Here is the input.
Amino acid sequence: MSRILCTLLALLCTAASASVAVTDDAGRKVALAAPAQRIVTLAPFLTELVYSAGAGHRLVAVSAYSDYPPEARGLPQVATATTFSLEEVAALRPDLVLAWRDSIRPEDVRRLESLGIVTMITEARRLDDVPRLLQAIGALTGRDVGPAIALYRERLERLRARYAARRSVPVFLEIWHNPLQTVGARHWISEALALCGARNAFGDLPGVAPLVSWEEVYRRDPPVIIGAGSRDGEEQFRANWRIRGTLSAVKAGRLVFMDADTLTRPTLRLADGVTQLCEGIDRAR
Here is the structure.
């Protein structure tokens, strides 16, 4: 009996001290002695992914604009889009910081880790980066994210099948108007456009979010123009383009407006955003 009890105790101790580890998007090993209990996120989409993993109650601080789900708005904010407060983060004693590669400097990562704060660097460029990152967060928090990932992929595959045979149409997608800014080939929105049976009219431009000249917009004259902004910005979007009346999309009324958060944040809500994108393009055809 005592031998069995000792074996059971040994197994329990081993399970309790079992470590978790993933490789982040900087190629670094991120290891924890146990699933993270105190988490800081330095980008809104990472906040959302932690909630999607079922670990939102373990967040102790987030970045500015972490507004989904609504309960995230009540959490302390320690970061902006370009920087964060090392002192505030350290004072919270997190066992895991989730950072976006585009907005954190390598020296800041080194400063965090010099304080013993494990940091995971993330990057998102493709639609499939959403389930990949969610899987990593699930591993680091000890949460089962399999069903959520399966549903996300299933929804995108259904859209792909539905729009595969549609007539391809060039689309200009505006993410900022002044200066005029769109998405390049290395962005999940370009991939989403292809999934909808369309193509990015400026998909040949380098970079993730290149600036575009008005001369080039008139030269390429895309037949569909899509705006992605805040929900109260549709009227301004249409007014901005109405004065460009010689463009084909404006003359024909092929202007589509979308909620930016569902399309420009790499989270599970991308499935909603891509659905709206496909439907809007289909109406414009």
User: Anything to note?
Assistant: The first helix runs from residue 2 to 16. The radius of gyration is 22 Å. The first strand starts at residue 20 and ends at 23.
